[in-house]
Amino acid sequence: LAQQKDPAAARKAAEERARVSLGVKEWNVESRPTDPLSKAKPWSDTLILADGKLTSKHLAEKGFLTSNITVTVEGGLIIWETMQRSAKGEIAFWRGELAGTNMGGVVSIKPVEGETEEFSFVSVTPPAPKPEEPAKAEAKGKEAQQKKEETKKKR
Question: Residue range 1-9: average pLDDT?
């Protein structure tokens, strides 16, 4: 008899591969209100999905914290979900879908007071590999340039 794979183990392995696929990139996305009559403005964002967490650069500027994501795989579709909170008590619910190199989804933002705003988002460029701490690389480059200049002055 041929051994059958454990479906739960296969699903868990697929979800782990999905987490890795999501986490090696920064996703540039455009978000637009789902309601055409909404007064909310569209916005650009960079989503960082790394180490099982989501950071939205746009929402981080508004005080939203990084949050854990849940990842599932359905067929060839990778689905991730999370809920972010801000220090003010606002909540953002995210649901994203990744098919190949295209990401899209919805985010609902619930302010402390007022109506929840719904946005759809789509990736606008192929994802870029996550930079390896560009600030450190820039600082090293400046430091090396300063040392060169100091060496020239001593001569």
Answer: 61
